[in-house]
Amino acid sequence: MTLTNYLVLAAVLFTIGAIGVLVRRNAIVVFMCIELMLNSVNLTLVTFARATGTIDGQIIAFFVMVVAAAEVVVGLAIIMSIYRTRRSASVDDANLLKY
Amino acid sequence: MGASPVLDTARFDTVAVDAINAPDFSLAGITPLLCVFGAAAVGVLVEAFAPRNVRHPVQVAVALAGTLGALVACVLLAGTREVTAAQALAVDGAGLFLQATIAGLGALSILLFAERSLDPARSSFVASAAVPAGSARDRELMTAQRVQTEVYPLATFAIAGMMLFTAANDLLIMFVALEVLSLPLYLLAGMARRRRLLSQEAALKYFLLGAFASAFFLYGLALVYGSTGSVQLADIRAAGLEDSTSTLPVIGLGLLIVGLMFKASVAPFHTWTPDVYQGSPTPVTAFMAACTKVAAFGAILRLLYVAFGDSEWTWRPLVYGIAIVSMLVGAVLGLTQTDVKRMLAYSSIAHAGFLLTGVLGLGPGGTGSGLQATMFYLLAYGISTVGVFAVVTLVRDGDGEATHLSQWAGLARRSPLTAAIMTLFLLALAGIPLTSGFIGKFTVFRAAIEQGAWPLVVVALVASAIAAFYYLKLVVLMYFSDPAEDGPTVGVPGLPTTIVLAVTVSATLVLGVVPGAVLELAERAAIFGA
Amino acid sequence: MPETLPATGLLSASWLLIALPLLGAAVLLLGGRRTDRWGHLLATGLVAASFVLGVLSVVQLAGLAEESVTVDLFTFIDSGSLDVRAGLLVDPLSAVFLLLITGVGTLIHVYSIGYMAHDPGRRRFFAYLNLFVAAMLVLVLGNSYVALYVGWEGVGLASYLLIAFWYTRPSAATAAKKAFIMNRVGDVGLAIAIFVMFAQLGTTSYEDVFGSVGLLAGGTVTAIGLLLLLGACGKSGQFPLQAWLPDAMEGPTPVSALIHAATMVTAGVYLIARSAPVYDATETARTVVLVIGAVTILIGAVIGCAHDDIKKVLAYSTVSQIGYMFLAVGLGPVGYAAGIAHLVTHGFFKAGLFLGAGSVMHGMGDQVDMRRFGGLATKMKTTFVTFGLGYLALIGFPFLSGYWTKDAIIEAAFDKGGTSGWLLGGVAVLGAGLTAFYMTRLMFMTFFGTPRWEDGVHPHESPPVMTVPMIVLAVGSVAGGFLLTQTFPLVEWLEPVFGPEAEREHVIAPLLVSVLVTAVVAVGVIAAWLLVGRREVPVTAPARVSPVVTAARRNLYADALNESVFMRPGMWLTRALVWVDNRGVDGAVNGLAAGLGGSSSRLGRAQTGFVRSYALGMLGGAVIVTAALLAVAS
Amino acid sequence: MLSNYMPFVGLFVLAAAFALFSVAAAPYVGPRRYNQAKLEAYECGIEPVDQPLTGGRFPVKFYLTAMLFIVFDIEIVFLYPWAVSNEALGVFGLVEMAVFIATVFIAYAYVWRRGGLEWD
């Protein structure tokens, strides 16, 4: 069984995530899209671990999960605080700083 | 790797078992890192157990002890060359020089954080970030003299991440370090006491874009790993790009570069910079602008020259182009800015371009003077940047810092000393002789010319001339305009800011007038790997 | 160049000479109003300390075998192939300037304490004066052209600030701008000369440049010589860049005395004398120096005859006297020492004359028009006597300073031989006669005759703090020439720099020259007495005068020349460009600035503040980066 | 072989049929006497309100607890690989893990002291 399919799937997920960041307005959803990108990378990593016969990829995937969790904590804290102030989680509303 | 990797279970299993061994570990070599990480952990414990009224002095002391300890440790380690922790960390001249730079600049930033006599509320950080901006509780806290002490462990963690970033000899460690330095910065950016909406917006933008960039970096890591079977820089170098017909590692390199250039605020990945620099509390801006730049360039240099040093003709044209774009974007866009911090952000983008000029000054096989030039430039730029933002914290009106350019008109008449110091830093940023900035620019340009990149240097000179215009515009504004009636006042700095200003002013002058010793130090330290 | 030694003892602390006045400037400028009360005393004290240190250093220098030492200050850049060092060079030539600058500088600081006593900007004034002294010392003590250039720009800045000291007067502001711009013309020449040296020789230190000047092509050396000369002309107010100097008299009088008479304006002479090895290698450039010197002698003297403003007369006199110095250094080895000697004595008597003029103005309510003076000899006795001695020294009255030093130059001019020798000598003698004429005219109009004072003016002698420096300078004017030519000949002192005194054939016996010059001077004095001294001076200048006088009053049309050569075409060009701009072609006048500003705001629009558009930009960047890498890799 | 499982299939089919029948038949056969209480989501217990008390938002405590759970839960991920290769790593691995757990404990202590574990 070829692993290319997994890689293609991961690439598609990554792209969907990236496009999601560009088109969604809700900060939480944007952030979830970023998480999708990270997880597609995880898929890529474990696939490559299989392909190259090394375990580094799997270990890296663990690290990525931890980092992603930490990022969730920080990110939700920031989004939470801005939501409580503005009563809106739309990234387009946060537009005071420009030019 | 071929286009269709095939599963080989037997091989996978044997390799997996062999791979697990206890790594070699040189504790001595990573003392600087341990110092800062230790200080950060102690800071968290202090936050947990120390009574509120003693926390501030204790936290400042812990953070300073950690950073200064790391600085001392780097100095003591000078000359060490080894790769430790299962090939994941490099202890070498360049790494130690940059770690010492980050530790020193970090200590100065901590001092700016600790300033308590400028703001009537005794701190530039919000007392409680969880309280919604503009609520009754927020207004109550605005004037209360409660101070936020969590910023110190956060900043210490960021410094530790930055130092790890420059020492990483492994893409995974590089990624972890990238996150360790970024996550606290996202939070710090949103902690301004005044203009909280702007601050929160800055944090949100920095966070979303930073996470987006990390995802690119990570995908690049995965692709490089997939094509070379390893994430260690030495292995990647051994695998090489030219041998492989695959496009995988090339795309991977591109994505890694994107992730790092984002942190270094190089155009076209700079868009977050002006917004975040403007919105963040000024001490945090100083910290980000100075330390993150050093760390990011440390990682860029290591990635390009250690991992991909054998295939530099793949990335050289790209970096060449990015450098030009960055210099021109920074110089031209800075012209029409009306906010001091925003203007300095564009200046930072232009400087990133100048630094890339130095990166290109490193020749094949690490020949040429590009590495030492870039390291010196980073040091000089970092010092001036901390200094210039320290001055920004001094100029205040009733609403906090007065950052609009028009408010700086005639500042020389209100406070000649402040204006003189600001002028010195601006001249240093513009690269006028007898300041550190001139020597920095001179050395990077010379390194680039030695590698035949003179067209780049011509562009760099044009960009410097354009950028000099906005620095000098501010100087002219301070000296030759009439001060506004209700203009800002210049606060009397307390001990911490005074120390920062004294150190940065003297360092800017010393590096400009007698740079010999430091240039020599950089030259001797300009070594990658064991 | 003689061998230079590393400095030892006191000489290794030469940097203090510069650091002391610089410290003064820094304290006064940064200290703000806190230093208002004692700042001027500090400034004066520091310059005096610098002078004392200078004297001690020179004494030590005189005792050394090799009379030239370098002080390595620091290595500016030393990495790889590039090695830029900054250091000081103390040799007989710089020692002379060192003493002149700090000595006269100290006296003028003291005088200014009295002169500026009631000025609200006193602190600022002393800060600038200190800054000037420091910069001037950098200029003469630096051991490379780059150091000289740093000092050169520094004195330019100080001079600009001091001319515009009373910046509320439009005339002062205009004069400062004029000085600044005309100096820039010269500075560009100097800067290009330095670039050429660096490009050709890879160094700018005196030692290395002079050591390898022989390796350069003749044309290059000539180019360097002419460019240096352009710089010298700008700074020293020589033809054709002389017009700024008289206008610079808008500054306070002590400034005119120190900067625009005794020291800064002689920097051009220093530059040419210091670059002697360059000029030794290029006859063409040296000849141009001679011509410029000779032309300037006459221009300065002729214009000096027609002005009624006491400071402008003295200013043109300065222009003319520096012409003598240029003439001297243009003559080569026979003239270097003579030129420097005249520079030193001129520094004394011209500074004394300016201080005297300042004292007169002080007593006459800041009046500068000589037609409003007269009969002051009895009212201001000290001023009269010191001014008179300076006057006698300047016109070359036998056995006073000018007699010794100016005659030496005239002698050397004749000794050049051939037609050119006679021509130059003749011009120099004629200049001496004109000098005698206009200075005598000045004396008569100011100190003799009937008072023509404006109502309400009560002339009075100045306080001792002002008269004492004048007395000291007068003593110097009387004795300086004798000391420097007979007792302690400057020629011998400067021998390590310029080589031994050249053997020369005297075309005319020195005694004869002396008699001739004295006779011509006497004619000038008598002419002045006949035309001015024995008549009543009209309060308003007569309108119906010969074209020559009109031309002289208009500064020999130098301003008109400037206007027609630089300003008119400049304005014409501007108009043409505005026209081009208006025609819609991408404007060349404000094109660059506007273009950059415009593109800045247009590009700035891309910074929309929307996270999503930033992310789009990053994604686009990532795509481009990856595509570019793939394009390169494949 | 599969025939052994046929009774299970029969049971599933029967169960599904009964469920479907009950649901479908109830509206037709049952009496229809509604009152207010019968329309409530819960017929006994706490009275539900239209909106959550905080105006359309969850108390932040839920969020905080969820996050703490994620962070501490993820750390466990690293214990498994170590446990598997404990023998290969030896004392070094043990010390390393002790340091790691101590570090996590620091974070735990912080959360505990700052009241992160208290619901009110």
From TrEMBL, chain A:
GO molecular function, one term: NADH dehydrogenase (quinone) (non-electrogenic) activity
Enzyme class: translocase
Residues annotated as transmembrane: 6-23, 28-48, 60-83
Catalytic activity: a quinone + NADH + 5 H(+)(in) = a quinol + NAD(+) + 4 H(+)(out)
InterPro entries: NADH_UbQ_OxRdtase_chain4L/K, NUOK/Mnh_C1-like
Recorded topology in the membrane: Multi-pass membrane protein
Span of the signal peptide: none
EC annotation from Swiss-Prot or TrEMBL: 7.1.1.-
Record key words, sorted: Cell membrane, Membrane, NAD, Oxidoreductase, Quinone, Translocase, Transmembrane, Transmembrane helix, Transport
Primary localization class, coarse: membrane
Localization, UniProt: Cell membrane; Membrane
GO annotation, cellular component aspect: NADH dehydrogenase complex; plasma membrane
Annotated Pfam families: Oxidored_q2
Example of a GO biological process term: ATP synthesis coupled electron transport
Top-level taxonomic group: Bacteria
Function statement: NDH-1 shuttles electrons from NADH, via FMN and iron-sulfur (Fe-S) centers, to quinones in the respiratory chain. The immediate electron acceptor for the enzyme in this species is believed to be a menaquinone. Couples the redox reaction to proton translocation (for every two electrons transferred, four hydrogen ions are translocated across the cytoplasmic membrane), and thus conserves the redox energy in a proton gradient.
UniProt xrefs under PANTHER family: NADH DEHYDROGENASE SUBUNIT 4L-RELATED, NADH-UBIQUINONE OXIDOREDUCTASE SUBUNIT ND4L
Family the UniProt entry places it in: Belongs to the complex I subunit 4L family.
Protein name (record): NADH-quinone oxidoreductase subunit K
Originating organism: Goekera deserti
Species classification: Bacteria, Bacillati, Actinomycetota, Actinomycetes, Geodermatophilales
UniProtKB/TrEMBL annotation, chain B:
Listed GO MF terms: NADH dehydrogenase (quinone) (non-electrogenic) activity; NADH dehydrogenase (ubiquinone) activity; quinone binding
Keywords noted in UniProt: Cell membrane, Membrane, NAD, Oxidoreductase, Quinone, Translocase, Transmembrane, Transmembrane helix, Transport
Catalytic activity: a quinone + NADH + 5 H(+)(in) = a quinol + NAD(+) + 4 H(+)(out)
Residues spanning the membrane: 25-46, 58-79, 94-114, 171-192, 204-226, 246-264, 284-305, 317-336, 343-363, 375-395, 416-440, 452-472
Membrane topology term: Multi-pass membrane protein
Gene Ontology cellular-component terms listed: endomembrane system; plasma membrane
InterPro entries found in the cross-reference section: NADH-Q_OxRdtase_suN/2, ND/Mrp_TM
Location in the cell: Cell membrane; Endomembrane system; Membrane
Major localisation: membrane
Function: NDH-1 shuttles electrons from NADH, via FMN and iron-sulfur (Fe-S) centers, to quinones in the respiratory chain. The immediate electron acceptor for the enzyme in this species is believed to be a menaquinone. Couples the redox reaction to proton translocation (for every two electrons transferred, four hydrogen ions are translocated across the cytoplasmic membrane), and thus conserves the redox energy in a proton gradient.
Homology family: Belongs to the complex I subunit 2 family.
Protein name: NADH-quinone oxidoreductase subunit N
Organism, as annotated: Goekera deserti
Gene from which the chain derives: nuoN
